[in-house]
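Why do we bother with holo predictions? Because pocket geometry can differ from the apo form. Keep that in mind while you read this record for iron/sulfur cluster.
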Amino acid sequence: MAGKKEFLIKINLDFCKACGLCYSYCPTKAIGPDHEFRASVKDVAKCIGCLQCENYCPDFAIEIEEKK
Amino acid sequence: MAGKKEFLIKINLDFCKACGLCYSYCPTKAIGPDHEFRASVKDVAKCIGCLQCENYCPDFAIEIEEKK
Amino acid sequence: MFDYSKYLRMDKLPHIWCYGCGNGIILKGAVRAIDKMGWDKDSVMAVSGIGCSSRATGYVDFNSLHTLHGRAIPYATGIKMSRPDLNVIVFTGDGDATAIGGNHFIHAARRNIDLTVVLFNNNIYGMTGGQYSPTTPQGYFASTAPYGHIDPSFDIVQLAMGSGATFVARSTVANPREMEKFIHEGLKNKGFSLIEVVSNCHERFGKRNKMKSPYEMIEWIRSRAVSKVKAETMEPEELEGKIITGIFRQETRPEYVEAYDSFVMQKAGGGN
Amino acid sequence: MFDYSKYLRMDKLPHIWCYGCGNGIILKGAVRAIDKMGWDKDSVMAVSGIGCSSRATGYVDFNSLHTLHGRAIPYATGIKMSRPDLNVIVFTGDGDATAIGGNHFIHAARRNIDLTVVLFNNNIYGMTGGQYSPTTPQGYFASTAPYGHIDPSFDIVQLAMGSGATFVARSTVANPREMEKFIHEGLKNKGFSLIEVVSNCHERFGKRNKMKSPYEMIEWIRSRAVSKVKAETMEPEELEGKIITGIFRQETRPEYVEAYDSFVMQKAGGGN
Amino acid sequence: MGEIKFLQGNEACALGAVRAGLRFFGGYPITPSSEIAEQCARLLPRVGGRFIQMEDEIASIASIIGGSLAGTKSMTATSGPGFSLMQEALGYGIMAEVPFVVVNVMRGGPSTGHPTGPSQGDIMQARWGTHGDHPVIALYPESVPETYYEIIRAFNLAERFRQPVVFLMDEILGKMNESVEIRDDIEIIPRRKIEGDPSRYAPYAMKEDIPQTANYGEGLRFHVTGLFHDETGFPDVSGDNIQRSIDRMFRKIEEHEDVIGKWEETGTVDPDILLVSVGTQARSAKMACKELNREGISAGVFRPVTVWPFPEKRLAELSRKAKKVLIIEMNKGQLADECRKFIDGDKIIALNQLNSEMISPREIISTAKGVL
Amino acid sequence: MGEIKFLQGNEACALGAVRAGLRFFGGYPITPSSEIAEQCARLLPRVGGRFIQMEDEIASIASIIGGSLAGTKSMTATSGPGFSLMQEALGYGIMAEVPFVVVNVMRGGPSTGHPTGPSQGDIMQARWGTHGDHPVIALYPESVPETYYEIIRAFNLAERFRQPVVFLMDEILGKMNESVEIRDDIEIIPRRKIEGDPSRYAPYAMKEDIPQTANYGEGLRFHVTGLFHDETGFPDVSGDNIQRSIDRMFRKIEEHEDVIGKWEETGTVDPDILLVSVGTQARSAKMACKELNREGISAGVFRPVTVWPFPEKRLAELSRKAKKVLIIEMNKGQLADECRKFIDGDKIIALNQLNSEMISPREIISTAKGVL
Amino acid sequence: MRYEIIFSGIGGQGMILCGKIAAEAASLYEKKHSVQTVYYGPESRGGIAESYVIISDEPVDYPKITKADALVAMSQSGLERHLEHLHENAVVVIDKGKVSVENLPETFSLSSAPFTEESIRIMARPMAANIVALGFFSAVTEMISPDACKKAIRHNVPAGTEEKNIAAFEAGFDLGRHA
Amino acid sequence: MRYEIIFSGIGGQGMILCGKIAAEAASLYEKKHSVQTVYYGPESRGGIAESYVIISDEPVDYPKITKADALVAMSQSGLERHLEHLHENAVVVIDKGKVSVENLPETFSLSSAPFTEESIRIMARPMAANIVALGFFSAVTEMISPDACKKAIRHNVPAGTEEKNIAAFEAGFDLGRHA
Ligand SMILES: Cc1ncc(C[n+]2csc(CCOP(=O)(O)OP(=O)(O)O)c2C)c(N)n1
Ligand SMILES: Cc1ncc(C[n+]2csc(CCOP(=O)(O)OP(=O)(O)O)c2C)c(N)n1
Ligand code: SF4
Ligand code: SF4
Ligand code: SF4
Ligand code: SF4
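The structure, written out:
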């Protein structure tokens, strides 16, 4: 089906330092801050796989995988 | 008299190291080497005051003065 | 999905860099660029000096060497002279490479020895607490510029070109994909390659200059970045304070060790 | 007739340089240029490093300082920071200023501190016996290049410009009057001035390269000198091995110590 | 009584230096000394002085030698790696007899070592780091107030003897905060102004072995070089001149040890056990000594403030009377080894620790009791 | 018997080094060491090695540390001013335990001093020049043939102990010509090749206190740093690790003094007067000793070849039996002062000279006679 | 009398400043003798960063901790690392919610309050938690008077932030008085 | 037997090479022990540049001059400077015309010939005066055989100049035999 792609957002909280870059750059706000400002998934369906979060995360803490 | 200028060639043999630059660059060969290759006046009348020798002498050993 | 764990010493993570520090973004770009080269990890040699950025060598699963402040390039030069088959990458900072290490930088560029230098330019000495570096912009504050900074900055790209580097490029952490591409181009060059990446240090630079968060700093960098193509259409006054990005030189000249082997060793009758 | 004795320590002559060494020609040009400035001798400060050329400071009747190999420029920087009213001239060699002293050279240029650097470029390390320098031309011989030299050379003019110098010129000993003029222009510039003078060392360079006499070497230099204006009309291939002469940059930017005094001291409320 | 300020050691160093007349600082940052540069950047332009951050440590020390020769009291500050880089120019300063101060805030070495850890590992380097035979003056205070006053003394000694002075501190001292009473009555030796006939002026003409060198730009156009030189400042590498020059340079310091030397003696007079220690570590020795005294043990502390020249005579004297000499250092025993030159080896007990922590009073006490 | 060559000291140094396996030289010229670089530029490319003239001495030593870590035996050569500049990186070599050789052909110092004059002024610097506590190996031959063989031993020691070795020469030795028999039967310790499982490899795992570090690019991707580090090579600045690391680095050298130490004893056995001297100066002592012996005076010569660690035990032993110990040096008495640590001060007579000339046999003889 | 205090935490929490303020307060405004020393890791941020304060009636010789009389811990590791350095009846002050206190020896005199939370409450940021903690410490130990602390705070915090920090101190002091 | 020779001159005259050739000749080709040491000033050119050669049947300890048995002087200062270093009946060889010998003690065995002139005569350049002098020295002292010297010359002069230098040596040797 050539429909909308779906993605998995993997966040490694052991690495995340709560810098906020990923969700600042997320264009759809699929991710956002948790109570300690670390990355957390807000609405996985909104993820369009642009990889902005992955590009900017300085801590290898977030990965986007396309669901197959 | 607006005639030909005349010059004095002063050579300081205590400073001269016999490099030969002055007489190599002298266009009229007013100066030339002595037996130990130091500068010596060959024909003072030939000097045209171009100051080539003075410019190139690395040893402050030769000076050209205009006769007044 | 890119598998960073292939190239990283995962047991050393999280790294020591501050939250949001651009160093991590650059390290990522470098790793992706190296991956594109398809090199055997054993053939890759990562060398760094001293500074926050220079800690990068501790995280990559290559041969790695953390040297002295400013001296990464001469160490790397010796490695290349000893093992020309190694792919030698230098991770360094603006202080490391252009303050104390400035001489080594220009001489390696002159020789055109095959090193790829990825220069993390955060415009400050991060590790020692925010003293001004040779690239701190005028008018900004640093711990040793409490009244505002007066030194003119190096244009590192100009410096590298004036010294004879054969590949020279500049990008920023605001454009990770471009940076990755430039690093990749640099790695492909057989000779001295310099990729300057303008980066953010909100801890030591930003906080003193009204940019408290990594995001603010990266956006400040983005706001000043102008591509080389665009810059050519702009007036000098408009370009003041701007960061011109792009590949500035990409040319082929004999590489140093190759020249040594093909000329000196041949003449001496050595060879191997 | 120019009275050199006004500026020289006559009791120190003859100097230690070899017969026909270009250093003497440059020293003469420098003295004449200084004379044109009409400065009080007490206000002139001559600083040098180590090398044949750096012995120049011993012969001039100014305040004079013979420092360490490569370090003339930072010593001079300290002098200028201490006494901005002194007219500080640096006499240095290609090895002194661009090998071991390369970093100081580019940083002083970057700062645009008011030093006039007269760089005696004889393309070799004279004093230590003829090892190659960063400007030894490729293919020539040196005591450490017994099979012919492979290093690309620095273009010192490019290096100074890439670093931010505000006055940059090159002449040769084959053209003493031009040299004198350029030094004079450099002295007039309030900021960092570099005058490179290509010179002859037949003892350590010439004799190894089929040029036994000072005259032969100076003529070799002359044969390679091309004025900037002429060079602009020539093809890159034609320019290979040539020495392009002329004034390459002459511009006005705030001088370092003046900037310090007018900005930092003012803000700090110091001043004097 | 003067104003009391609560200061960091590095800050006191900068403030004291400015008080002593510092007007030019050229430096390069390095942990744990950077606050000295930062304070100078802040303080100097307020008093008409200038600060510059140079491109490296070599340039830094070169710049202050130039600054000093041109008449301005000058200083730089660094730590181990930078101090190593400064060695060549430090030797130049000694050879050309230029007054200036180099601060070395010691951290853990060798090499990059432990940048944020304290150590006393550069004491022997301060004596022998540069090549060739040369005399050295090195001071090492124990507290923030002493830092303030000793840095002033460092400048005074530099001016008086025309000799670079090495000012040792350690990471603990540099980063420590304590109160300092800023007294008004401090002697400051000003930079000499020399006058004379330029045509006959000899910058290295001596008065009691100390050269009478002027400042550049004040009318006497003299020459300075790092080569051996004669009275006129011009090169002279004749054997006689070399021998004479080095002998005189040593004499200049050795014959003034009464002025240069300084130490503190506390605790029991002529003690059975003498504790020897320098810098912050000595404070631990002092606490231990008090406790030992309280317990009725005859113990005293000898603390050199001037580390080089080492106060050998006095320490030898005290050691003759003591049963044991316990030398306590945050290094492998550099001074303990040095003391073997003049203290009976059987008496010396070296207590050393290199784990980035000061040796505690408790350890000192138990070692002292163990050896008596 | 091998071929006999007539060689300059500097040349023998280069030839011996190449024989020992030198294949990379990074250097910067300086009188009186430059011939070593020049010979390496000529010799190395003939045997598939490489030479580079770096931009300064710091770059030179940095380059050879890199070269050595990448598996190539490496060396640099310099003189006082350059040796001072190399101190920081020399400390790195000691800390990171990298085998290489640094030659210092001593000239007159301090500072630029007397570039073409001999001296023995850098002996203490060789011990203490870099910051922080650190062990040192330094050798110092007396003749051209000994230079050839000792430089080979320097490389062997470097490889065996993974330690930079300082090779001292002096201007006289560097520029002197003598014949050398090039023997065939010389032991060369090759660079170790280490194999293992990359995922578990620890470059600083020890065997008798000596790290088992591989070469870069041979399949074990390890990390090297100048920070204190653990067995895996990664930073570890815990107090325990620092203490352990430095203690072990010292042990590595101290416990192998039987292999590292080397000296020569000539003249009367258990002499009344013991002449102590190193390098070319010792040859003058030997001539003096022969003359004294001829005159029936009980005299002997003790000549350390390994200067650091100093052969203290043996010299102490010999000194106990001697009435006087005459220590002869072209410096202000650096070793004489060192010897006070283990020789009764009353026995020590220091004979020193700094006029750029060797102390002659005549002076030694007359001093010896004067003190007996 | 020699009183030893450990202010422990990680980089960025401001425990070095906190110790400096305490020591300065004791020294300049209470006319006691005091010394503050520090410990910090080589990391730019996030490593250990703490300080030690000695307050005494006499000049302080040894400037480090022998046995601490009090510990203010803003991080779990900062508590655990120092348990062995404490007097058996030392005062232990911790940031409630951030630091948990299972298995703490009974002999310690433990008190806690949510310093970080309080800071967020007052200034919407966690930054002043150290000052809140100092206020709390001042109240529970009475080692340093609040007045002296407030003078030292004004002298040490960045210009413009004085009032906020004084408010944070007072909030902490209040929490302490009611603890 | 220990024989000490001074080859003295100024930079550029080649007296360092001259000594090296003599010492190598003695060592490699005459199987004696020999050492050559040098002295040169810091000037690039024109300063003192000379060498000392010790030849002995036994290994040479002290490599410098105690009392020289012979002096070859190519400059006036090179003669005068060394008079005090000579044995009272030392051989003194000088370049006639360049060096004058007034007031020389009678005990010396003086011989001279115009080395520079001879060099100019043979090769139109003064450069080989040192080799001429060596030939002369070899003939008058018989310390080193001409064959050994010639081997050492071939080994030490720049490639291509061997024959000219041998000719210079022989010219000097002839002058010496007839001196
Ligand atoms: C010889 C020496 N001098 C100074 C230092 C202190 N030092 C460590 S890192 C650094 C500057 C770092 O700046 P940069 O290279 O820009 O790296 P960053 O930390 O900003 O990434 C300095 C001055 C040192 N370690 N060694
Ligand atoms: C630290 C140090 N390294 C090396 C030297 C040796 N040295 C003296 S002059 C010189 C090079 C001189 O070259 P250059 O500056 O070009 O001057 P020139 O003699 O050619 O005029 C060198 C390497 C030194 N004196 N100090
Ligand atoms: S960018 Fe990375 S470190 Fe930053 S908040 Fe997102 S996941 Fe965490
Ligand atoms: S140029 Fe000068 S030194 Fe050369 S020969 Fe002429 S006068 Fe003599
Ligand atoms: S101090 Fe700056 S450069 Fe260093 S890790 Fe933190 S943000 Fe990055
Ligand atoms: S060696 Fe060369 S540079 Fe030096 S004085 Fe002689 S000719 Fe001039």
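Helices of chain A lie at 21-25, 52-56.
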